[in-house]
Amino acid sequence: MLINSNLYNCEPLTAPGTKPEALSVTEFRDSFVHKFAAMHGKPLSTATDGEKFAALAALLREIISKNLITTRQERARTDPKQVYYLSIEFLLGRLLATNLVNLGLRETCAEALSQLGIQLDSLLPEEEDAGLGNGGLGRLAACYLDSMAALGLAGHGCGLRYRYGLFEQKIINGYQHEYPDNWLQDRSYVWEYRRPDEQIAVRYGGTVRMQTNGKTRFLHENYEQVMAVPYDVPVVGFQNKIVNTLRLWSAEIDISHYTCCRQGADCNSVIDYKHGVEALTDLLYPDDTHYEGQLLRLKQQYFLVSASLQSIVRSFRLNHDALRLLPAKAAIHINDTHPALAVPELMRILLDDCGLGWDEAWPLTVATISYTNHTILPEALETWPVTMVAQLLPRIHMLIQEINERTGRELWHTYPGDWDRIRAMSIVADGQVHMAHLAIAGSHSVNGVARIHTEILKQSVMRNFAACTPDKFTNVTNGITHRRWLLTANPRLAALINDAIGPDWIKTPAKLAELAAAASDPGFLAALAAVKLDNKRQLARYIKAKNNLTVDINSIFDSHIKRMHAYKRQFLNVMHIMDLYNRLRADPALTIAPRTFIFGGKAAPGYYKAKKTIKLINTLADKINNDPAIRDQLKVVFLENYNVSLAELIIPAADVSEQISTASREASGTGNMKFMMNGAVTIGTLDGANIEIREAAGADNIFVFGLSANEVLDYYQQGGYNPRELYTSDPRLKTITDQLVNGFFPVGPEEFRLHYDDLLHHGDEYFLLQDFAGYVDTQNRLAAAYCDQQRWQRLGLLNIAYSGWFSSDRTFAEYATDIWQLTEPVPFWNQDQPGIYDQLRPLARQDVLC
Ligand code: 26V
Predict the structure, then answer these.
(1) Total domains present in the chain
(2) Which of 35, 563, 595, 794 is catalytic?
């Protein structure tokens, strides 16, 4: 096999049949120079990187704008069914590189800039990450936008334009400190289009009066009105000239209300009103211990839902007279329960604004809305106090009560006399509105995000609903966009793959499977190793710059990057590192496969234990990194402010992907898929999508350990777990656990007392002591595999080869055909190559929980 020795100067990554923008290098360069001069009025030679970035983004925006207009014109002509993906979070990250790739202009741009003495790579970090999400749920939404545009579907995101995204994390003395993420820098976002002419009024508070003259009507009066102004962020399709939009709503004052001040009204109340309105979309809520009682969060949810649905129905009515066509022309998808008020809001619009009767409106609502659940963690299942809903949203409250009564009556018919079951399925119970129950009642489809997750939903938290309406429940295993996570984030690997199998995989990621043939090609495996080493070198430079730590690029880069949470078990990883360290200290002659353990992740500001885990990792890092006795065989790194851009740097450089959640707790995980696609080998539990990764990659190509989901659930239900017994019987565990409080760490005995107590006195809820031995054994097996480099590279290669099924193009095609029933063909899915993904589909097994 011929390997392109200069991986940077490969041919443009253009798939046959696709249409990159027709712009030569010279044209691009001249347009950039022109744009720069017009924008900044100064010589390019005196420009800052920030100014060059602004000009480049503006130039791309022009190209994107043209495509946006033609996409809209084409859609107006063909009137396809529209998908609206409602999500309180969209974790976009940066858009410059991905827009260049999707336009087919990355190489053209890099060459044009280099002719001007500018490095494209040095401009990319000038863009602020759009961090409008907490983690997996928000990033998933962003991946889906990319796939919808790539597949040419008329799909739009609907979200909120938070002025501050997820907080910026700084590590000071080992502790997390939170700072506001001022991503807009008090300017406008380079990619967005503000559309004040399409603003929508959203109403809060007030009273509802029933009017009966002939027909019963409900009049909402004395409300406070807030204007929702849309900002459209273009979503560029992959070399297909399609541009969809992510519509982000921003809260602004209703100017008619505001002018009262000048006319002598109570100025204080007007100022309060202004501040209240501006606060509405100021801040993204971090996943905190619970949201209950946080009025502003409920206001945000309704703001998103009301603005989006009014705008959807308005644009539907511009083109269609018959409301009965709504489900045929619009699919409204709610990403978790945060937008579940879409159910009563659509009812409100259909009943109060459009004049339909209940029996017409309800079937239309259910046929239009679908819902994805993303967690079974009880503390994350949303409820809202009925009194709060009634006060803030009086008409919505009436509708929720009505939906509750009617669904209750139907259940009574199905299960006469079974009050316990009916109460358990109630939307309103114990003074709370249960958002998941509302979402299930008002949707025609409910799905989990990995096979095991859907099964657990059907057997536990949603079992009554699944028994009652089994056809509503379905699984769609998550996916990630290979265009961002492989093609854009790992250009060296993408180039190597192109050399080996050509570029068709970019359009049809299932074709990555053709790479498997190279598993016995030592030349290819060596080239793969060289790419990984280059990526590791790049990450090592970053670690040196940020943490002032030198790491060995030939050591195993073992990465654990995700939100900090007890169920994700960063602490189990720490326990293994402590054990390795203890072994090295006990035997000064011991030589191990050198390892660099890389952590990254934010803890919710109110999540005390997760913040202590960050301190624990950093304290351990200080101890190990400064201990000459271990001869640089171990390094521990915590990289601050984990975000999408940092993930794009870490994942291509990782050898090992840590996916070690307590089985049954991680709904799917998506980081696991990104690592797999970049050739990192997973060490993980049989949880979430790890199960399907194992099936796709082959059981020999992933390292699995730990309790099964069934075993965990049995322990939760029946008890019988005895962590103290493990502590006394395994000397390694006794040592590590005691070290948390016995002065081993130079921080005082109370610093990690909570970790100690949770293991020994609070039942070890996440089964760390139980899974420890299996984890250590599996880490040892993994290290042995790494030492056989040929074998290791083969493992990495097979992971890449079988990762195509986890492309969000596959996921989206499943949503499009099974849930939204889009009539338009989904390219590359059910048309070009029927069955190509089916060949890769992880085996459908009955014993999913075993
Ligand atoms: C929210 C909260 C809020 C209250 C405190 C604890 C807590 C814990 C977790 C969450 C997140 C809930 C929703 C979520 O982000 N789920 C994630 O969705 C991903 C995309 O489907 C999936 O890959 C992750 O496994 C799942 O945790």
Answers:
(1) 2
(2) 563
Does some domain include residue 254?
A: yes
> Residue 14: what pLDDT?
37
Q: List CB contacts of 359: < 8 A, sequence separation 6 or more.
A: none
Q: List alpha helices for 41-128, DSSP H.
A: 49-78, 96-103, 106-115, 120-123
Q: How far is CA 132 from CA 184, 192, 259, 480, in A?
A: 11, 14, 32, 18
Position 8 scores a pLDDT of 23
Please report, for residues 13, 239, 326, 769, the alpha-carbon distance to residue 73 in angstroms, rounded to integers and kept in the order given: 29, 18, 21, 61
DSSP secondary structure code for residue 594 in this structure: -
Residue 846, in any domain of the structure: no
Q: What angle do CA 678, 687, 594 make, to 5 degrees?
A: 50
Give the separation between CA 243 and CA 152, rounded to whole angstroms.
9
Q: Is residue 824 part of a domain?
A: no
563 assigned to active site: yes
Report the CATH number that the domain containing residue 201 is assigned in CATH: 3.40.50.2000
* Substitution site in 292, 375, 661 for ligand 1 pocket (most atoms within 8 Å of beta carbon): 375
Q: What is the mean pLDDT of each run of 10 residues along the chain (850 residues)?
A: 28 45 94 97 96 98 97 95 98 98 97 98 97 97 97 96 98 98 92 98 97 89 97 97 97 77 66 89 85 86 98 96 96 98 98 97 98 92 96 98 98 96 97 98 98 97 97 98 98 98 95 96 98 98 98 98 98 98 96 97 97 98 97 97 98 98 98 98 98 96 98 96 98 98 96 98 98 98 96 97 96 94 62 52 38
243 lines ligand 1 (CB under 6 A): no
Catalytic, 734? Answer no
Q: Is the dihedral of CA 714, 610, 169, 618 positive or negative?
A: negative
Smallest CA-to-CA distance from 381 within 466, 439, 342 is with 439
Q: Give 760 Cα–ligand 1 centroid separation in angstroms.
A: 27
Q: Please give the distance, rounded to the nearest whole angstrom, from the Cα atom of residue 755 to the centre of ligand 1.
A: 22
- Tokens coding 467: 């028994």
**∠ CA 89-94-96 to the nearest 5 degrees?**
135
Cβ burial of 379 (10 Å; 0-12, 13-18, 19+) is: exposed
The bridge status of strand 595-600 relative to strand 681-684 is: unpaired
Indicate if 339 and 486 belong to the same structural domain: no
Q: For ligand 1, is residue 606 a contact (CB within 6 Å)?
A: no
Ligand 1 contact via 668 beta carbon (within 6 Å): yes
**Ligand 1 center–CA 463 separation, angstroms:** 20
Asked whether residue 141 is domain-assigned, the answer is: yes
Is 413 among the catalytic positions?
A: no
Ligand 1 centre from 666 Cα, in Å? 8
Closest atom of ligand 1 to CA, residue 604: 5
Q: Note whether 300 and 277 are within 8 A (CB).
A: no
**Is residue 186 classed as helix, strand or coil in its secondary structure?**
coil
- Terminal-residue alpha carbon distance, the chain: 42
Q: What is the pLDDT of residue 301?
A: 98
Q: How far is the CA of 374 from the centre of ligand 1 (A)?
A: 6
CB of 136 closer than 6 angstroms to any ligand 1 atom: yes
Whole-model pTM over 0.90: yes
Segments forming the whole domain that contains residue 423: 79-94+129-475
Q: Is any ligand 1 atom within 6 A of the Cβ of residue 381?
A: no
CA of 614 to the centre of ligand 1 (A): 19
Task: Please indicate whether residue 380, judged by its CB atom, sits closer than 6 Å to ligand 1.
Answer: yes
> Where a domain ends, among 475, 510, 539?
475
pLDDT at 848: 34
Residue of 383, 613, 619, 670 with catalytic role: 670
Same domain assignment for residues 716 and 780? yes
**Is the separation of the CB atoms in 165 and 132 below 8 Å?**
yes
pLDDT of residue 397: 98
Beta-bridged to residue 475, according to DSSP, are 448
Query: Based on the domain organization, do 486 and 462 belong to the same domain?
Result: no
Q: Residue 798 carries which side chain, given as an amino acid letter?
A: L
